[in-house]
Amino acid sequence: MPSETHEETLALREQFNTEAQQKDASTLGMWIFLITEIMFFGGMFLAYTVYRRWYADVFAVASSSLNVYIGAANTVVLLCSSLTMVLAVRAAQLGNRKAIVWFLILTLLLGGVFLGVKAYEWNEKFVEHHIPGPNFHFEGIAQQGPAQLFFSLYFAMTGLHALHMVIGAGLLIMLIVQAGKGRFSASYMTPVDVVGLYWHFVDIIWIFLFPLLYLIDRHLGK
Amino acid sequence: MITAAVQERANYLTASHGIKSWLLTKDHKRIGLLYLFTITLFFFLGGAFATLIRIELITPQGGIVSSETYNKLFTMHGVAMIFFFLIPSIPATLGNFFLPMMIGARDLAFPRINLLSWYLLVIGGLFSLFAMLAGGVDTGWTFYTPYSTTYSNSWVIATALGIFVAGFSSILTGLNFIVTVHRMRAPGMTWFRMPLFVWANYATSLIQVLGTPVLAVTIVLVFCERVFHIGIFDPALGGDPVLFQHLFWFYSHPAVYIMVLPAMGVLSELISTFSRKPIFGYKLVAFSSVAIAVLGFLVWGHHLFVSTQSVYAGMVFSFLSYFVAIPSAIKVFNWTATLYKGSISYATPMLYAFGFIGLFTIGGLTGLFVASLGIDVHVTDTYFVVAHFHYIMVGGTIMAYLGGLHYWWPKMTGRMYPELWARLSALIIFLGFNLTFFPQFILGYLGMPRRYHVYPPEFQVLHVMSTAGASVLAVGYLMPMVYFVWSLRYGQLAPANPWGATGLEWKTPSPPPLHNFDKTPIVEHEAYDYRPIIGGVPESA
Question: Cis (ω within 30 of 0) for the bond into B511?
Fold first, then answer.
């Protein structure tokens, strides 16, 4: 059989010639996947842009019902989770197996806190009848339709973002199990690296969502 | 030539056995065959719907099926053909099989993701199949709102979910191809030594990766709108149904290029091989693929000329649509220039290639008609548009797909197809196709709207011609089915390089060994390093 095929290892699958080639390919693959994600969220950002331009005033008033302080605190939580993720990647680069596990667990916890706070916020909206649908009612606005549009976008965008967080949490759990078994080392840490890229991407989406959803009422001078 | 010893050596088909070795395979060649099998089923399913449509249209009274059923027939014809046949057709079968071989790689960069994307197509297909069997869907393959979100009582959600899932199959295939082309090329295989089929698939992958997610999010919004009544596209709440059209065509116009760009890639291989000349203007043809991919994203508004889009936007989109004609024309001119003084042979793949050039040219030129604002208002939603895009999709993509399938069949299976039958079927398909769709240009120009099954009696002659053509076409499509299957057992054993072609895929035995090459090839020449034949047949390598 071919002289060039080699024993398959995690760091060197049989289709690759060198470990560097495999690492390069995996990273490039993740970057391209993130581009598809930008296009995916892009459709929603487009819808948001169109409707906010049409109904700027209604959107501002509707936005004022969101709690900026909770949103801001949650943003900080998410940024911290990005920090711990970076530290996990760094620990992997240095081959510090114990630290990888701990930083990944910390990232998972911070992600969990973010989702918990999000669930609390959604529940509040539920109580206030701000859920789009037949029971929707927003006090103090004549145009109920556009106000409902704002909340449709709010739920669609934060919902999809949360779904990505849940997927990220699943990936983290997988990594924690593997890292616990000592699977990663300085010479093979690609999964930690690419999940890190994904996690940061999901954070960046939130960095755009937070001002677009929570902060567009500032000029109302509440 | 071929010896018994060569034939008995292990290849990717004999490397392992049993159903499990196929369903869990990571070999890009086997996955290509899995795709081939799957999309053939959908092709004949979509063809069955088309048959019913054409039978219904024989008489102007529209007596055979009800209007509701007719709506479902043309919707399911479109869904099956576009999302489950044309989009995966060339990239997922021929591309999967040959893209790694053409750049001298052992496999795609992510074999397991490749297998996953086949499963996604199957799962998506099952969703849509379920919708079709459970009662069908009647929105048209375009799913325009508010009909799809509010009023339709058919299986919109199941179908849309199927398309959503199949979309991820397409995204992952594109991602896999891009990474493979960037990172897996053999030593010496520079970008400008890559076969144009690889360039075309690379450009296609860019569209799949950039466009398909937008369709995915649009489907999510339609889904939410239909289930939760959230109002994003609902005018009653201040939403805009036309926004749906923008989002939908932002994917679905580039999707046309997902379907036709790989076909153009196949054409470059066929024209070069069977005229034994390097492609004229290689770099221009390569770049024109990328140009089509980029420009394809800037023309979606030409589907909205009559949808309340501003007339200024319409003018810009019209202008940009004309612009796409340039790279397309570059390809056609360069192929014909390649033929000039070539040693042309008329093997079956070349017959399909000639068919493609003629039909694509008609399809492309009528594209200019519908890209101009005034004429488009006259022919919007008529059979003129139907004829136009069938000339591109069927006359272009399917011709090239069949041409490519014949060209690479010996490599894929190790058997030759019967040449005489194959030439006959190519001829029948060409005649049948023109008889089916040319009358539709006239019908449309005279005012026959698409998606109607009751029509004024004066259109009957043209409709009957079209139906007669469809019957001929059906015979033409069934013939390869029969003789391809026949050839698996009774076909002549294929040599490694039956066409005397230069690509790397021909430098390895037919069928190829498990890892494609015994030794990673080292590339020292440009693609299409052909010399004219002076006297006699080329020697098979």
Answer: yes
Domain A19-220 in CATH: superfamily? Cytochrome c oxidase, subunit III, four-helix bundle (1.20.120.80)
**Which pair of structure tokens corresponds to residue B233?**
């596209």
Give Cβ neighbours of residue B228 (< 8 Å, ≥ 6 apart).
A132, A133
Which residues lie below 8 Å from residue B326, measured CB to CB, with a gap of 6+? B291
Domains in chain B and their CATH numbers? 29-507 (1.20.210.10)
B325 Cβ contact partners less than 8 Å away, ≥ 6 residues apart: B364, B367, B368
Distances (CA, A) of A147 to A132, A213, B397: 9, 13, 46
Whether B94 contacts B405, CB under 8 Å: yes
| pLDDT tens digits, one per residue of B336-372 | 999 999 999 999 999 999 999 999 999 999 999 999 9
B231 and chain A in contact, CB less than 8 A: yes
Answer whether 0.80 is exceeded by the pTM.
Answer: yes
Domain ranges of chain A: 19-220
Alpha-carbon gap, residue A50 to A41, rounded angstroms: 14
- Name residues 29-88 of chain A within 8 A of B (Cβ): 29, 32-33, 35-37, 39-44, 46-47, 50-51, 54-55
DSSP output for A154-218:
HHHHHHHHHHHHHHHHHHHHHHHHHHHTT--BTTB-HHHHHHHHHHHHHHHHHHHHHHHHHSTTG
Nearest CB to B217: which of A43, A143, A152? A43
Residue B538, classified by CB atoms within 10 Å of its CB into exposed (0-12), middle (13-18) or buried (19+), is middle
CA nearest to B214, candidates B185, B243, B173, B183: B243
Band (pLDDT 50/70/90 cuts) for residue B540 is very low
Please check whether residue B415 is in contact with residue B409, taking contact to mean a CB–CB distance below 8 angstroms: yes
Q: Examine the predicted complex and report whether its ipTM is higher than 0.85.
A: yes
Chain B neighbors of A146, CB-CB under 8 A: 237-238
Count each helix (H run) and each strand (E run) in chain B, helices first.
17, 0
Closest to A40 in 3D by CA, of B141, B209, B118, B148? B209
User: What secondary structure does DSSP assign to B80-91, as a single string?
Assistant: HHIIIIITTIII
Shortest CA distance to B159 belongs to which of B217, B231, B75, B45?
Answer: B75
